[in-house]
TrEMBL record:
SUPFAM superfamilies named among the record's database cross-references: Bacterial luciferase-like
Protein name per the record: Luciferase-like domain-containing protein
Taxonomic source organism: Cellulomonas cellasea
Chain segments carrying region Disordered: 1-37
Biased composition (Low complexity): 1-27
Gene Ontology terms for molecular function: oxidoreductase activity, acting on paired donors, with incorporation or reduction of molecular oxygen
Domain of life where this protein originates: Bacteria
Length: 210
């Protein structure tokens, strides 16, 4: 599968509360992200959830991360089939799932499907494939985010891909991925670099290759 403001470090993504994920905060009181940019925190992350982070293998932009039976559902029927048969279900932001709130709802829907077919939630690994662009520092990240937002506007898309991409220094990318995973309820994140370079090498030093 594949909009709030672009991610900055460990900032939250969405302005709307994710269903069942915790109470909304006062919209008049934005907090500060790890990188110093204001961010509205609308959901409370599950701090106890263990989250794995891996980097997509070179040339594989949507990896299966070594899972024996991995599904990438793109419809309700495919979601039900994934719930019944998959060892791992990979989700990603799209025009159909454009925001963090929508992703959290999709994860809950998948969990309901898993329960409906009599499977244990622990037996199905839910993974978020997340587009990322590691940068040398926060200043470069701001320029890159602005550029991606400009491209979105020119493309005339019905959603903003740039709003759910993580553009930040490598350590902040990993932190943002873990924060996002806990907010939407997934078990792991596979970071899918938008371009190769030293930043991606740094990412791979921080997280294993999927």
């Amino acid at each position: 599968m594949s909009t709030p403001t672009a991610l900055d470090g460990a900032a939250a993504l969405d302005r709307a509360p994710a269903a069942g994920r915790g109470p909304a905060t006062d919209p008049s009181a934005p907090t500060q992200s790890a990188a110093g940019a204001p961010a509205d925190l609308r959901t409370v992350p599950d701090a106890a959830r263990h989250v794995t982070v891996a980097v997509a293998a070179p040339g594989d932009d949507r990896p299966h991360a070594g899972d024996p039976v991995a599904f990438r559902p793109t419809s309700g029927v495919a979601l039900a089939l994934a719930a019944a048969r998959a060892d791992a279900v990979h989700l990603s932001f799209s025009a159909q799932v454009p925001t963090v709130a929508a992703m959290a709802e999709l994860v809950e829907q998948l969990e309901d499907e898993i329960a409906a077919v009599g499977r244990e939630r622990a037996g199905v690994r839910i993974v978020l494939d997340l587009d990322v662009l590691p940068t040398p520092d926060a200043d470069v990240a701001r320029r890159k985010r602005s550029y991606l937002e400009h491209l979105d506007a020119l493309a005339g898309l019905t959603w903003k891909p740039s709003a759910t991409r993580v553009v930040a220094a490598p350590e902040a990318v990993v932190g943002a991925a873990v924060d996002l995973a806990r907010r939407v309820g997934v078990d792991g994140v596979v970071l899918v670099p938008l371009a190769d370079g030293p930043g991606v090498d740094h990412l791979r030093a921080l997280a294993p290759v999927a």
